[in-house]
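step=encode ok
step=design start
structure_in=
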C-alpha cells in the first residue's frame, strides 16, 4: 500500500480536547487546548501549548498554574466555544453556564461540570514557535464522585470523554483491549462436567 508524503504538520491524532482553566475564582477563564499530554509518570508531569497572543497565556504565565479539565459529550459545545472566543471580551464561564469550583492546591478554578480536573504547577515555559509549552507538575487529580462504582472503582468509560482529530470532535468508542492484553496469558477454559447417564 502506497503512502503520500506531505510537508511537516500537526498530524498526531486523536488528541484530548480539554479545557485549561486559569485566572481566579472571582475572574475565572478557560481556553480549549488540544496540544496536551503526559510527559513523565514520576513525578507526574504534563504540558499545554498556548499561543502567546491568547488572553489565557499571560494569566497562566503570571500565576504559574492552571487546571486541565477533561471534557465530555455534554461539554462539547462549550469546549468548542471556549476555543474560538476570548476571555478579553466576555466571561466565558458565565456565557457557557459553567461553574468555577475551588481547587485544592492552586488558586485558579476547576470546572465543576468536568468529570476530571487536574491541578498543575508550571515548572518551565518553553518557547517553540507559534506556541509556548507550559511544562507542569501535576499536583492533584480531582474526580467526580458519581463515576465511582459500589466497589469504589473509578469508571472512566462512563464519562463519555471527547477527543479531537483533524478538526473534528469525537466521543470515545468501544473498548477493544486493555493495557498489556497482547502479552497477557490466557486463562484456561473450565472443563465442563459431563452429565452421568442413569
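sequence_out=
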Amino acid at each position: 500500500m502506497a503512502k503520500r508524503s506531505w510537508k511537516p504538520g500537526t498530524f498526531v491524532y486523536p488528541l484530548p480536547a480539554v479545557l485549561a482553566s486559569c485566572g481566579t475564582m472571582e475572574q475565572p477563564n478557560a481556553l480549549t487546548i488540544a496540544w496536551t499530554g503526559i510527559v513523565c509518570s514520576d513525578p507526574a508531569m504534563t504540558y499545554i501549548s498556548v499561543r502567546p497572543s491568547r488572553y489565557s497565556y499571560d494569566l497562566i504565565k503570571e500565576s504559574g498554574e492552571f487546571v486541565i479539565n477533561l471534557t465530555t459529550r455534554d461539554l462539547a459545545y462549550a469546549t468548542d466555544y471556549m476555543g474560538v472566543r476570548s476571555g478579553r471580551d466576555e466571561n466565558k464561564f458565565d456565557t457557557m453556564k459553567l461553574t468555577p469550583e475551588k481547587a485544592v492546591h492552586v488558586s485558579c478554578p476547576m470546572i465543576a461540570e468536568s468529570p476530571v480536573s487536574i491541578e498543575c504547577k508550571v515548572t518551565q515555559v518553553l518557547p517553540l514557535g507559534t506556541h509556548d509549552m507550559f511544562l507542569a507538575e501535576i499536583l492533584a487529580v480531582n474526580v467526580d464522585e458519581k463515576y465511582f462504582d459500589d466497589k469504589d472503582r473509578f469508571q472512566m468509560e462512563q464519562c463519555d470523554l471527547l477527543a479531537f482529530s483533524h478538526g473534528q470532535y469525537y466521543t470515545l468508542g468501544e473498548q477493544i483491549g486493555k493495557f498489556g492484553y497482547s502479552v497477557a496469558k490466557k486463562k484456561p477454559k473450565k472443563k465442563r462436567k459431563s452429565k452421568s447417564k442413569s
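step=design ok
step=annotate ok -> The mean pLDDT is 93.
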